[in-house]
Design brief:
Elements (H helix, E strand, L loop, with lengths): L2 H14 L2 H21 L5 H24 L3 H15 L8 H15 L7 H12 L5 H13 L1
Length: about 150
């Protein structure tokens, strides 16, 4: 995904008068531009995807916090933003596919205990490249190494 595509989507949402979509996409464009300023160069498509993933993670965390605080109205707003943002990343791996990758990496690295968890997680993250959430990866690796 490219920044220009996102900016075109902002214009389209403005024409549709979809205020929630406009605000969410503007926030995303702003986060990407901030990352570019920090890096002092254009972001690759992979880096743009990482920014989108980061924004998705923020929404998930916010939803948990709002639900814990009894603010279902704000949780619903965040959920709507989350759903929109998820449309800009590739579909996530199924749990079965993730389990298969984790098992392969454990075999390849020779990991046998929880002390090897960091090494395994690093290798799995490199293999799945944004197709699975870090929390899911961590839980899967923990499950396999503790058994």
């Amino acid at each position: 995904m490219k920044l220009n595509d996102l900016q075109a989507d902002v214009v389209g949402a403005m024409k549709e008068k979809d205020e929630a979509k406009v605000l969410t996409l503007r926030m995303l464009v702003s986060a990407i531009k901030n990352q570019q300023i920090e890096k002092k160069e254009e972001l690759t498509e992979e880096e743009v995807g990482a920014v989108v993933q980061k924004e998705i993670k923020k929404r998930r965390d916010s939803i948990e916090q709002y639900k814990a605080g009894g603010r279902d109205d704000l949780a619903q707003k965040e959920q709507a933003e989350l759903t929109l943002l998820e449309g800009y990343v590739p579909a996530q791996m199924t749990d079965e596919d993730l389990e298969t990758v984790v098992k392969e990496v454990i075999e390849q690295t020779g990991a046998t205990s929880m002390q090897d968890m960091g090494k395994v997680i690093g290798a799995v993250v490199a293999k799945v490249k944004g197709l699975a959430d870090g929390k899911r990866i961590s839980e899967s690796v923990k499950k396999h190494l503790s058994s």
